[in-house]
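Q: Please design a sequence for this.
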């Protein structure tokens, strides 16, 4: 079940993997988390069918599965909607602040 994925890193990982196939240590550096955290999360996401993993030499390459791509797309859209709402609310607060100052 998805409940065993604690925190929001798994969401960020799925969204990050929309950029394409990469390897675990590169993800750890790019998103500033420990390598072991990436590995543990990848293992869980592989078991849920969200990520595909392939060992080539010393590198473990990861990429989104078909269902992982759909989930990542929806997560990106949701996060974008939150950002848009936050920006609109910030503009409204600034506008109210300017109106109060001009009175």
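A: Design:
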């Amino acid at each position: 079940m998805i409940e065993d994925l604690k925190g929001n890193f798994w969401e960020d990982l799925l969204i990050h993997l929309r950029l394409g196939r990469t390897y675990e240590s590169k993800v750890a550096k790019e998103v500033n988390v420990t390598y072991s955290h990436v590995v543990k999360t990848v293992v869980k996401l592989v078991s849920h069918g969200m990520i595909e993993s392939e060992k080539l030499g010393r590198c473990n390459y990861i990429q989104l599965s078909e269902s992982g791509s759909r989930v990542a797309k929806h997560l990106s859209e949701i996060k974008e909607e939150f950002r848009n709402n936050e920006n609109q609310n910030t503009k409204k607060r600034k506008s109210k602040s300017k109106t109060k100052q001009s009175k």
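Q: Thanks. Anything notable?
A: The longest strand covers residues 51-56. The beta strands are 22-23, 51-56, 59-64.
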